[in-house]
Design a protein that fits this description.
This protein is α+β, with helices and mostly antiparallel strands and about 350 residues long. It has two domains: about 220 residues, Rossmann fold, CATH 3.40.50.300; about 90 residues, Nucleic acid-binding proteins (OB fold (Dihydrolipoamide Acetyltransferase, E2P)), CATH 2.40.50.140. Helix content is about 25%, strand content about 30%. It contains nine helices and 18 strands. The protein has a six-stranded mixed sheet, with helices on both faces. A five-stranded antiparallel sheet has the order 13-17-14-15-16, covered by helices on one side. The protein has a four-stranded antiparallel sheet with strand order 2-1-4-5, with helices on one face. A hairpin with a 2-residue loop joins strand 4 and strand 5. Helix 2 crosses helix 3 and helix 2 packs parallel to helix 4. The longest helix has 18 residues. The chain is globular, with a radius of gyration of 24 Å. It starts with a strand and ends in an 8-residue tail after the last strand.
């Protein structure tokens, strides 16, 4: 069983003013796909390297299948690491790059050949086995790096921003392929990304980091529907959640009627798709100027202004380009409330 458990992992580099990781605790269950998500510099890659054994934690415990990994060398952890730059040997062929780890472990040649054949067929690399990395496209290099990990049949896969070097169209295509692939091989996956779309669409669970601390851990739906704080609320979702102070809400003309109405230390959040829009006045709705209209096919994104406050709205309406006024209302049941001082969720 390849359950990975981290307990109070902290890391401070020598001479650093503050820790890069602080009290990181979470569990990745067997065959789960878990993403470590956060902005650049939040500690994601350092944490992945600690799991792989390429960095030592300053404190805390890492266990795989209940076995403490603190004294286990990287090569003995039975993990496969896919690096952001793929780390292919330029003078080796595709076949040699894929089989290198097996050859170093002195696995029988016939078994190596069988494993390489099965893996390259799965990833569509059969016709590229004799090529060198320089003769491959970015997408092909990425598949070779994946094949090198898959052929080992490790207990745990560690992937560090594997799609970041691909163009947008190929990245979108590869996201789904990766998810299906790891479901097929029943792999336990820890996946580092700064791209919230990757994390939301691929993961069973997401661990969101900021400044070396866990902000929230949960399923994609849990994190989207109930963000733990303002950072998570604005980091997850495109377009970004609208964040308004209580004074801004009141200036717009919206009346708070729930238990939050009596709180002064209040910040309100509303996702763009949870604002209702109309091209014509409606009773009880608020009026706004249309600053920007961004058609996007199925959805149109509007930037509107009311009482000096800008809001982003997503709508299925085919918004007329000449329409410069909008009427809107909030879906009360879809509003999020946070304590302004701490930024933490209320309710």
């Amino acid at each position: 069983m390849a359950e990975v458990e981290l307990t109070n992992i902290s890391k401070t580099f020598e001479g650093a003013a503050r820790p890069v990781l602080t009290d990181i605790s979470f569990t990745v269950k067997d065959t789960q796909f878990v993403s470590l998500l956060g902005p650049s510099g939040c500690g994601k890659t350092t944490l992945l390297r600690i799991i792989a054994g390429l960095e030592d934690a300053t404190s805390g415990r890492l266990a795989i299948g209940a076995l403490d990994m603190s004294r286990v060398a990287p090569r003995d952890r039975d993990m496969a690491f896919v690096f952001q730059n793929y780390a292919l040997y330029p003078h080796f062929s595709v076949e040699d790059n894929i089989s290198l780890g097996l050859r170093l472990r002195k696995i029988d040649k016939a078994e190596i050949a069988a494993r390489v054949k099965a893996t390259t067929e799965m990833l569509g690399l059969e016709a590229l086995l004799a090529r060198k990395p320089r003769a491959l496209s970015g997408g092909q290099r990425q598949r070779v790096a994946l094949a090198r990990a898959l052929v080992r049949n490790p207990r745990v896969f560690l992937l560090d921003e594997p799609l970041s070097n691909l163009d947008a169209k190929l990245r979108d295509k590869t996201r789904g392929e990766l998810r299906l692939l790891f479901k097929k091989v029943k792999g336990t996956v820890i996946y580092v990304t700064h791209d919230q779309i990757e994390a939301m669409t691929m993961s069973d669970r997401i661990v969101i980091l900021q400044e070396g601390k866990i902000q929230q851990a949960g399923t994609p739906n849990e994190i989207y529907e109930k963000p733990a704080n303002i950072f998570v609320a604005t980091f997850i979702g495109t377009p970004q959640m609208n964040i308004l102070t209580k004074k801004e809400i009141q200036a717009i003309g919206w009346t708070l009627t729930g238990p939050e109405a009596g709180l002064e230390d209040l910040t309100c959040g509303i996702r763009p798709e949870d604002l209702e829009l109309s091209t014509e006045p409606r009773q009880g709705w608020l009026e706004a100027a249309v600053d920007l209209c961004e058609p996007g096919g199925a959805l149109t994104t509007l930037t509107i202004s009311a009482a000096g406050t800008q809001l982003r709205c997503s709508t299925t309406l085919k918004w007329p380009p000449a329409q410069t006024r909008a009427w809107f209302t909030f879906k009360r049941e879809r509003m999020h409330f946070f304590r302004s001082a701490e930024g933490t969720r209320i309710g």
